[in-house]
Design brief:
It is a single chain. The chain is an alpha/beta fold. It has 2 domains: 122 residues, no CATH class; 245 residues, Rossmann fold. Helix content is 51%, strand content 15%. The protein contains 15 helices and 10 strands. The strands form 2 sheets. Strands 6-7-8-3-9-10 form a 6-stranded mixed β-sheet, sandwiched between helices. It has a 4-stranded antiparallel β-sheet with strand order 2-1-4-5, covered by helices on one side. It is globular and about 75 Å long. The protein starts with a helix and ends with a helix. The structure holds adenosine-5'-triphosphate. Adenosine-5'-triphosphate binds next to helix 6.
Length: 406
């Protein structure tokens, strides 16, 4: 049988491969969560809040989650497929002419590496990229198209945008508009079928993905499942240890990163006893320790109470203003767009608007039409405008009040 035919018979479909990557990601997150719950229950047991039986339940859940993660890493559909493809690939003599086979090997190699990389992708960014900055544009997305499977509709369709170095960009859109898909592509969990992502002028490919990721720090939605260490200090240290940072330098890096988010007095605290906002601050400190240029906040405020939500938004602004970081915030929270330099509006997989917040907010009917809520502040500005009171766009209520009281 020729190798192409053999390959076609053995190939994972796009859908199977994408499902595998997503499942792997989700099992990994579950494992972290269960691990944290177990840590927390140990402390609660010491404090006499729960009994041994309860503690054992948490332990069992954590063991189960670890086993599930291991299971998916070694899942038959994946390993068998990978081995078969490799065997066919290795036995074929006309490697150069067999482009499909070459692509298949790459694709499967990539998926295989994911299990190694996932630990890193959560904690381990910005470790001094080896790729050179070739451009002032931090992130450029060109004609990006992505489908979860060939017969599915496009989850992303001809998406184009640029994010300049030092810019704060909010990506908004109703459920199903493509925000999560875009974020998964930016952090390299999924790869687009068409189009490119460039980071500082480097087109991201499978070969340089790991290096390109070093420019990125990521803060996820759920503050609880981003911890690995048993104290704030250990947690921030985790990524540094992985990068084999000289232990002599670590103390200072940990302290400085914690200080940037106002957590320097919490270094010996157990992360799970912190508030949601504080946990997210530690997650930001862990990312900052590796000095990434770009920070992606993936719905990072959505599980926080109003205080935590405010804290994190303020930190995002500070990171841009004081540390000149590029901020990409993928969010449901329309209020957040007021802080941004640029807003990207997604709808049904397409980028439907891009511009400064005041430009995007001009067309309120359009935003309402794609089921987006207008920020309260803009409604106030609109009402004032109708009364003939002209004011500049404000980022928050304090600014608005100041303008009115001038
Ligand atoms: N794993 C998947 N398999 C198949 N289709 C998917 C998968 N994940 C998302 N989709 C589809 O892709 C499209 C974009 O979804 P996506 O999750 O990126 O949107 P979103 O804007 O992040 O939505 P939400 O705010 O609800 O998270 C939707 O039509 C969705 O149904």
């Amino acid at each position: 049988m020729d190798s192409l035919k053999k390959f076609k018979e053995n190939k994972l479909t796009t859908k199977e491969l994408n499902d595998f990557k997503i499942e792997l990601h989700s099992k990994y997150i579950n494992m972290l969560q269960a691990n944290n719950d177990f840590f927390k229950s140990k402390e609660e047991k010491q404090q006499g809040k729960i009994d041994n039986q309860e503690l054992e339940k948490y332990k069992a859940k954590s063991v189960e989650a670890k086993a599930e993660f291991k299971k998916i890493c070694g899942s038959k559909i994946f390993i068998d497929n990978y081995k078969t493809i490799l065997k066919i690939y290795n036995s074929t003599t006309k490697k150069n002419s067999s482009i499909i086979l070459e692509q298949a090997k790459e694709e499967l190699n990539y998926a295989k590496n994911l299990k190694k990389e996932f630990k890193d992708s959560v904690k381990d960014h910005g470790r001094g990229a080896q790729l050179t900055k070739l451009d002032k544009v931090a992130v450029k997305v060109e004609n990006l198209k992505f489908k979860y499977a060939p017969d599915f509709p496009y989850a992303l369709n001809e998406v184009n945008f640029e994010i300049n170095d030092g810019e704060y960009v909010a990506v908004i859109g109703h459920n199903g508009s493509g925000k999560s898909t875009l974020s998964k592509i930016l952090i390299g969990v999924l790869s687009a079928q068409e189009g490119h992502v460039s980071i500082y002028g480097n087109v991201v490919t499978r070969d340089n993905l790991d290096q390109a990721r070093k420019f990125l720090g990521i803060v996820f939605q759920n503050p609880d499942n981003q911890f690995i260490g048993s104290s704030v200090e250990a947690d921030i240290a985790f990524g540094l240890e992985n990068k084999r940072v000289n232990p002599k330098d670590m103390q200072k890096i940990i302290y400085d990163s914690a200080k940037k988010v106002g957590m320097e007095n919490f270094l010996d605290k157990e992360p799970l006893n912190l508030s949601g906002g504080q946990k997210q601050r530690v997650a930001i400190a862990s990312a900052l320790a590796l000095n990434p240029d770009i920070l992606i906040f993936d719905e990072a405020t959505s599980m926080l109470d109003p205080k935590g939500n405010r804290e994190i938004k303020e930190i995002m602004v500070e990171l841009r203003d004081k540390m000149k970081k590029t901020i990409i915030s993928i969010t449901h929270d329309m209020d957040e767009i007021l802080n941004a330099d640029k807003v990207i509006v997604m709808n049904a997989g397409r980028l439907v608007k891009i511009g400064k917040p005041e430009e995007v907010l001009k067309d309120k009917e359009f935003l309402r039409g794609i089921k987006l809520e207008i920020p309260f502040l803009s409604l106030v500005e609109e009402a004032l405008d109708k009364e003939g009171i002209k004011i500049k766009h404000s980022q928050n209520m304090d600014e608005l009040v100041k303008q009115l009281c001038k």
